[in-house]
Amino acid sequence: MTLEQINLSTGPVNISMEVRNALSAPTISHRSLHFRQLLDDTLSALCNMLSVRHSFVMNGSGTLANEAMLHQIKTLGTKGLILSNGEFGSRLINQAERIGISFTTHVKEWGQRFELQELETILASGQIHWVLFCHCETSTGVLNNLDGIADLCIAYHVQCFADCMSSVGTTTLNLSKITMATASSGKGLGAYPGLALVFSNTTPLSSNSTPTYLDLANYSLKNNIPFTISSNLINALHTAIMQKHTAEHTNMIHQYSYKYYDIMHQYSIVPFSDRHSKVLTIVLPEGKKPVFTNFMDEKNIVLSYESEYLMKRNWVQLAVLGYYHEKQLDYAANTLEECMKHLF
């Protein structure tokens, strides 16, 4: 048994020692030139990584990033379409209702993918002016067709918005066709939770009805620092981006996510996933979940199974979102194989 805990949960994720050290560096003022340069470098790195024009960072979780994006959608004053095929699509619908946005929905069963032909029929009506959806629906791990939906939106002159919480940092992403997208520091970017991220290819609109803290136009006006932003969290995020997002690490993540999928696919327990999934939802036969989770816990491998929506369905999730050394991922693969033989 390894004495080292290996975090394969959906978040918070596995953190490198370098990122831990960056977090514990002395705090600096958000008004200092040093912080200005650090933030500029971080936002520039995100823009380059994702092929977007603007990046914004706020203190908060991914939910706050989605709130800021939804308030931008509200300023459009038009009717849109929100897609849902899981927990987090449903959350977007709930948030939009609370904010008072005009929209209709296209809802699929959890784990089902959106059919582009169905979406095209809706857009062809001419009644829809924007679309919002989750790229990776974290509750099931389904990776929705970002490029396909974005191309449809372009064809019908519709703006496209995406929640990319569990896809930014886990795969190569080009968001140049997306109006606006969101992420957080504590998932695929490999840093600590606490920073809400919004990526935009359009200039944010201001409205007196938008809460000041969520007003991206205010962030733009104030050169991205309207309020206090934690230098420690920015330093950790910058370090994580520079360290994790290399071809070598990305290829290793792909290799082992393929391996984890293959190990479990032969037992038909990852029904929503494929070899490209970085979030694998494990649906075990009756009575097998506690045996599985106890086995992995004893081997110091952290999985996700305590979220309300997972507990309700008796599901477990294994995700490869953080920063890892190959020996960690190899140990996890061997342990997973051992566990499958123990279970089946």
From TrEMBL:
GO molecular function: alanine-glyoxylate transaminase activity; L-serine-pyruvate transaminase activity
Record's keyword terms, sorted: Aminotransferase, Pyridoxal phosphate, Transferase
Modified residues annotated as N6-(pyridoxal phosphate)lysine in this record: 187
Residues binding substrate: 317
Domain Aminotransferase class V: 28-202
Keyword Transferase annotated: yes
Cofactor entry: pyridoxal 5'-phosphate
One GO-annotated biological process of the protein: glycine biosynthetic process, by transamination of glyoxylate
Name of one Pfam family that matches: Aminotran_5
InterPro entries listed in its UniProt record: Aminotrans_V_dom, PyrdxlP-dep_Trfase, PyrdxlP-dep_Trfase_major, PyrdxlP-dep_Trfase_small, SP_NH2Trfase/AEP_transaminase
SUPFAM superfamilies recorded: PLP-dependent transferases
Keyword 4Fe-4S: no
Domain of life: Bacteria
Family: Belongs to the class-V pyridoxal-phosphate-dependent aminotransferase family.
The protein, known as: Alanine--glyoxylate aminotransferase family protein
Top-level taxonomy: Bacteria, Pseudomonadati, Bacteroidota, Chitinophagia, Chitinophagales
